Amino acid sequence: MPLVEINFDGLVGPSHNYAGLSLGNLASASHGGDPSYPRAAALQGLGKMRHNLNLGLAQGFFAPLPRPNGAFLDALGLSGVEPAGEAERRLRAAAWSASAMWTANAATVSPAPDTADGRCHLTAANLVTMPHRSQEWPDTVRQLRLAFADTAHFAVHDAVPACFGDEGAANHMRMAAHHAAPGLEIFVYGRHTKDTGGGAFPARQHEQASRAVARLHGLNPAQALFVEQSAEAIAAGAFHNDVVAVANERVLFTHELAFADPEGTYAAIRAAQPEAEIVVVPASAVSLADAIASYLFNGQVLTLPGGAMGLVIPLEAWEHPRVRAYLDGLLASNGPIRKVLPVDVRQSMANGGGPACLRLRVVADPAAIDPRFLLDEARIALLESVVAAHWPEQIDPTDIGSAALARSVQAARAAVLEAAGLTELA
Fold it and tell me: How many Å apart are CA 28 and CA 26, to the nearest integer?
């Protein structure tokens, strides 16, 4: 079977809550302390998966990671201890975080046509910048090695050393004539604030992490581009590149302030990929603030059956007056993006993740992947039934740490692993 792009969405975990743990993520911070609705969040995510499946696209999923993470609490001496202050409260909340649902941060993926050994390579992201995410990668690797166990087709690498922060596919793009063709891999990194004259938020992606991943994957140096993210974008709240730019096949859809050297970046892309089409959204049409508030760029540019491209965006972008005006003009321009497809992922959006955050793109032969991770309508309906029966309807901030809630969350995850036939992950 030919190589196709498969989007693996994270199933929103039963401990989904708004603890406001992510510095630089404005949506997460603004909703910190609000009640969350895990059941609605998971059903919205499954609805997005069904939406893409109904477009005729391949769709997969990853199961939630075990939460609360007892090993994390043990290592911090917090097991059975009531937090005495705000720092301890946040550390306990980190052990409950369902942030692994944003699988764009699970790993960086290089398809087989790009690699020296002709296998698809995946390197788990270490996510060391944020404590609540830094604990994810060992369990993520377990799941990746189960889903992509065929070593004739896949190589799954542990995270790069923690001294170099790596945020995975959220800071990585790939451009090619088509998904199965050799492509240009674009790694976007940030400079630490001390190197850029200050700034309220950290740059999460280290250049050396990106270069290490490229070496691990055996990429042709001529087809690997390392680009600095704009300090202005990071300071405005674009904590990952996928908040201000997204690529698909020959198309790059980007805000004009996404990169530190935009013209140099575009020239390097065109030199490596002459067929590239670069759609630049001017700040005069959509400001950085509007882009970040609406998550216009945190969408999925998808190649639809028949070859046209569609842009999956959150409802927040479709309902934003200035962004909507830009999108109406984009569609009227008869450019490479021919359809705009809004989806409802409001619970994820309120915690700082749009449609692109929820998925990891893997170009591969579906027959080489463990079928338990691939979806059809019946399997989505099965997952929906488990979520409806077992996911908490609401979690309030004061619930975090509750023994009763912990038992409920653990039972919910066990139920979905049993239903999906993935009890090895228990």
Answer: 5
